[in-house]
Design brief:
about 250 residues; Rossmann fold; globular
Length: about 250
């Protein structure tokens, strides 16, 4: 049921690991929080929260190394390089990882749902906003969406392309926006230790101004910025993102 693979990405100029769980079902691409790796969701029991849906053949789960966010948090290289990596990582997701998922599912152009926590939520949102023809729904848990505070430098074109909160406000491609308005973003956050639900509300404001369907769910002050919260969120929301075919 579990399969691990990897390849050297010419876009990132380094190797990336990808892990898949499940045999049949619709694809869910999960981005790890922070600079986590492809198997973090399994180590922290996030996978266990979804096990019944994997066994039932309702979903297949994919995850990849958080290459861009790892370099961002480690302050690897100058800010311009980190912004370049952020953009190139998203291009890797669209032009290398998505085709890999389609091949693995044996269905060309199959709709992919994204999910992620913390900085992973940023990547889940960015994938849907940049490529709504490929990614159709995003579950953004405890999201951190404005990454400029990690950079300490003016935004480059790479950062602008990678950050939906920055480019979407001035975006006027009506064909692209029309497709985005048929997508959905769920922004869930606790309000306990380490959480900032204001990030989710700011993202919702940007999406809402463009007519993109979204919802902010507050889990209250007893839910903190950690895997305990995200396991419960996955269990709560993923079934609704993948309606049962018999319903």
């Amino acid at each position: 049921m579990k399969s691990c693979t990897g390849w050297h990405s010419h876009r990132l100029a380094e190797g990336v690991s990808v892990t898949r769980w499940g045999v049949y079902g619709m694809p869910l691409l999960v981005f790890p929080p922070g600079g986590g790796d492809a198997e973090e969701i399994e180590r922290y029991q996030g996978l266990a929260a979804l096990w019944q849906y994997l066994e039932a053949g309702r979903i297949k789960i994919y995850s990849c190394d958080g290459v861009a966010c790892r370099k961002l948090l480690a302050e690897e290289g100058p800010p311009e390089h980190r912004m370049w990596i952020l953009n190139r990582f998203q291009e890797f997701v669209r032009y290398e990882l998505a085709p890999f998922i389609w091949t693995d599912c044996r269905t060309e152009r199959l709709a992919i749902v994204t999910a992620g926590a913390s900085l992973g939520a940023f990547q889940a949102l960015a994938a849907v906003c940049r490529w709504p023809d490929v990614f159709t729904k995003a579950l953004c848990m405890s999201g951190t969406f404005d990454l400029q505070r990690f950079l300490g430098a003016p935004a480059t074109a790479d950062f602008w392309h990678a950050s939906p909160l920055h480019w979407l406000g001035d975006f006027h491609d009506e064909a692209h926006l029309a497709l985005l308005r048929d997508r959905f973003v769920l922004l869930a956050s606790g309000e306990g230790q380490g959480e900032d639900i204001g990030e989710s509300w700011r993202a919702a404001d940007v999406l809402g101004a463009k007519g993109i369907p979204n919802r902010v769910d507050s889990w209250g002050p007893e839910w903190h910025h950690d895997w305990h919260t995200w396991r419960n969120m996955l269990q709560e929301y993923v079934p609704s993102l993948f309606p049962d075919r018999d319903e």
